[in-house]
Amino acid sequence: MKAMAEAAKTIAGMFEGKTDYDATAFKLAAETLRTKSGDALIAEFPRGSVGGSTTAKAEIDQFPDEFAALAHHVQTLAAALSRAADTAPDGITDNMRMKPGTGGMGSSLLGKRAGPTKELDPSEIPAEHVFHLMLQDCTSCHAKFRSKPL
Questions:
Q1: Chain segment 119-141, per-residue pLDDT in tens
Q2: Fewest CB atoms within 10 A around its CB: which of 19, 29, 40, 118?
Q3: How many helices (H) and strands (E) does the chain have?
Q4: Positions of the region Disordered (predicted)?
Q5: Domain coverage including residue 13
Q6: Strand-pair category, 107-108 with 111-112
Protein backbone atom coordinates (compact mmCIF):
# COMPACT_ATOMS: atom_id res chain seq x y z
CA MET A 1 0.00 0.00 0.00
CA LYS A 2 2.89 2.37 0.70
CA ALA A 3 4.23 1.87 -2.82
CA MET A 4 0.79 2.71 -4.21
CA ALA A 5 0.60 5.87 -2.10
CA GLU A 6 4.06 6.99 -3.23
CA ALA A 7 3.18 6.30 -6.87
CA ALA A 8 -0.01 8.35 -6.56
CA LYS A 9 1.96 11.21 -4.97
CA THR A 10 4.42 11.12 -7.87
CA ILE A 11 1.68 11.44 -10.47
CA ALA A 12 -0.21 14.06 -8.44
CA GLY A 13 2.93 16.18 -8.14
CA MET A 14 3.35 16.19 -11.90
CA PHE A 15 -0.28 17.07 -12.63
CA GLU A 16 -0.19 19.80 -9.96
CA GLY A 17 3.06 21.23 -11.33
CA LYS A 18 4.87 20.68 -8.02
CA THR A 19 7.38 18.41 -9.73
CA ASP A 20 8.65 18.44 -13.28
CA TYR A 21 7.01 16.00 -15.65
CA ASP A 22 9.15 12.95 -16.30
CA ALA A 23 7.55 10.38 -18.61
CA THR A 24 9.69 7.58 -17.20
CA ALA A 25 8.78 8.39 -13.59
CA PHE A 26 5.11 8.83 -14.58
CA LYS A 27 5.14 5.46 -16.36
CA LEU A 28 6.89 3.75 -13.43
CA ALA A 29 4.36 5.20 -10.97
CA ALA A 30 1.42 4.15 -13.15
CA GLU A 31 2.88 0.67 -13.54
CA THR A 32 3.35 0.42 -9.77
CA LEU A 33 -0.32 1.26 -9.32
CA ARG A 34 -1.32 -1.20 -12.03
CA THR A 35 0.74 -4.12 -10.72
CA LYS A 36 -0.17 -3.58 -7.07
CA SER A 37 -3.92 -3.30 -7.68
CA GLY A 38 -6.38 -5.86 -9.04
CA ASP A 39 -5.65 -9.43 -7.99
CA ALA A 40 -2.40 -8.39 -6.27
CA LEU A 41 -4.32 -6.06 -3.95
CA ILE A 42 -7.01 -8.66 -3.30
CA ALA A 43 -4.31 -11.18 -2.37
CA GLU A 44 -3.07 -8.79 0.33
CA PHE A 45 -6.36 -9.28 2.18
CA PRO A 46 -7.33 -12.97 2.01
CA ARG A 47 -10.62 -13.94 3.63
CA GLY A 48 -10.31 -14.14 7.39
CA SER A 49 -7.15 -12.04 7.59
CA VAL A 50 -8.77 -9.08 9.33
CA GLY A 51 -7.21 -8.23 12.66
CA GLY A 52 -3.66 -8.16 13.90
CA SER A 53 -1.50 -5.52 12.24
CA THR A 54 -3.86 -4.82 9.34
CA THR A 55 -6.11 -1.77 9.24
CA ALA A 56 -8.69 -3.64 7.18
CA LYS A 57 -12.25 -3.59 8.52
CA ALA A 58 -14.43 -6.68 8.79
CA GLU A 59 -16.36 -5.33 5.78
CA ILE A 60 -13.56 -6.56 3.53
CA ASP A 61 -14.71 -10.13 4.33
CA GLN A 62 -18.38 -9.20 4.26
CA PHE A 63 -18.32 -7.53 0.83
CA PRO A 64 -15.50 -9.25 -1.09
CA ASP A 65 -17.10 -8.65 -4.49
CA GLU A 66 -17.28 -4.90 -3.90
CA PHE A 67 -13.65 -4.83 -2.72
CA ALA A 68 -12.59 -6.86 -5.78
CA ALA A 69 -14.50 -4.57 -8.13
CA LEU A 70 -12.75 -1.51 -6.71
CA ALA A 71 -9.34 -3.22 -6.84
CA HIS A 72 -9.85 -4.20 -10.49
CA HIS A 73 -11.20 -0.78 -11.46
CA VAL A 74 -8.10 0.88 -9.97
CA GLN A 75 -6.02 -1.48 -12.10
CA THR A 76 -7.94 -0.57 -15.25
CA LEU A 77 -7.47 3.12 -14.58
CA ALA A 78 -3.78 2.71 -13.75
CA ALA A 79 -3.27 0.86 -17.05
CA ALA A 80 -4.82 3.84 -18.87
CA LEU A 81 -2.41 6.17 -17.06
CA SER A 82 0.49 3.96 -18.09
CA ARG A 83 -0.59 4.16 -21.73
CA ALA A 84 -0.85 7.96 -21.43
CA ALA A 85 2.81 8.12 -20.41
CA ASP A 86 3.71 6.25 -23.60
CA THR A 87 2.11 8.95 -25.74
CA ALA A 88 3.56 11.94 -23.84
CA PRO A 89 7.33 11.58 -23.73
CA ASP A 90 8.07 15.31 -23.57
CA GLY A 91 5.44 16.65 -21.19
CA ILE A 92 1.86 16.61 -20.07
CA THR A 93 -0.09 17.32 -23.22
CA ASP A 94 -3.33 19.29 -23.50
CA ASN A 95 -5.24 16.10 -24.24
CA MET A 96 -4.02 14.67 -20.91
CA ARG A 97 -5.53 17.61 -18.98
CA MET A 98 -9.06 17.77 -17.61
CA LYS A 99 -11.28 20.28 -19.32
CA PRO A 100 -14.54 21.87 -18.19
CA GLY A 101 -17.33 19.33 -18.49
CA THR A 102 -14.99 16.33 -18.27
CA GLY A 103 -16.75 15.02 -15.16
CA GLY A 104 -19.05 12.60 -16.95
CA MET A 105 -18.63 9.96 -14.26
CA GLY A 106 -19.01 9.97 -10.51
CA SER A 107 -21.20 12.09 -8.34
CA SER A 108 -22.08 15.71 -7.87
CA LEU A 109 -21.73 17.71 -4.67
CA LEU A 110 -25.37 16.99 -3.96
CA GLY A 111 -25.03 13.24 -4.27
CA LYS A 112 -25.43 10.78 -7.11
CA ARG A 113 -26.39 12.12 -10.48
CA ALA A 114 -29.94 11.48 -11.60
CA GLY A 115 -30.43 8.69 -14.10
CA PRO A 116 -28.10 5.93 -15.19
CA THR A 117 -24.42 6.66 -15.60
CA LYS A 118 -22.47 5.17 -18.46
CA GLU A 119 -19.02 3.80 -17.67
CA LEU A 120 -16.57 5.57 -19.96
CA ASP A 121 -13.60 3.91 -21.58
CA PRO A 122 -10.59 5.33 -19.67
CA SER A 123 -8.59 5.53 -22.89
CA GLU A 124 -11.13 8.06 -24.19
CA ILE A 125 -10.86 10.56 -21.34
CA PRO A 126 -7.96 12.77 -20.27
CA ALA A 127 -5.32 11.10 -18.12
CA GLU A 128 -5.74 13.71 -15.41
CA HIS A 129 -9.43 12.79 -15.12
CA VAL A 130 -8.52 9.09 -15.09
CA PHE A 131 -6.15 9.83 -12.22
CA HIS A 132 -8.88 11.63 -10.26
CA LEU A 133 -11.27 8.73 -10.85
CA MET A 134 -8.64 6.34 -9.57
CA LEU A 135 -8.15 8.46 -6.44
CA GLN A 136 -11.92 8.47 -5.98
CA ASP A 137 -11.85 4.65 -6.05
CA CYS A 138 -9.04 4.65 -3.47
CA THR A 139 -11.02 7.00 -1.23
CA SER A 140 -14.18 4.89 -1.56
CA CYS A 141 -12.26 1.73 -0.76
CA HIS A 142 -10.55 3.24 2.26
CA ALA A 143 -13.82 4.69 3.56
CA LYS A 144 -15.54 1.30 3.49
CA PHE A 145 -12.75 -1.19 4.06
CA ARG A 146 -10.00 0.56 6.08
CA SER A 147 -10.06 1.63 9.68
CA LYS A 148 -8.05 4.63 10.73
CA PRO A 149 -4.83 3.66 12.52
CA LEU A 150 -4.76 4.63 16.19
A1: 678 888 899 999 999 999 999 99
A2: 118
A3: 6, 2
A4: 91-121
A5: 2-99+120-145
A6: antiparallel
C-alpha distances out from residue 56 to 37, 59, 64, 65, 144, Å: 16, 8, 12, 15, 9
- Please state, in angstroms and rounded to a whole number, the distance separating the CA atoms of residues 135 and 125: 15
Give pLDDT tens digits for 87-100: 877 878 777 888 77
Local confidence band at 49 (pLDDT 50, 70, 90 cut-offs) = confident
Say which DSSP state 64 is in: H
**Are 88 and 23 in contact, with CB atoms under 8 Å apart?**
yes
User: Could you give the number of structural domains in the chain?
Assistant: 1
Task: Write down the pTM of the prediction.
Answer: 0.82
Examine residue 106 and state whether it is found in any structural domain, yes or no.
no
Q: How many CB atoms lie within 10 A of CB 87?
A: 11
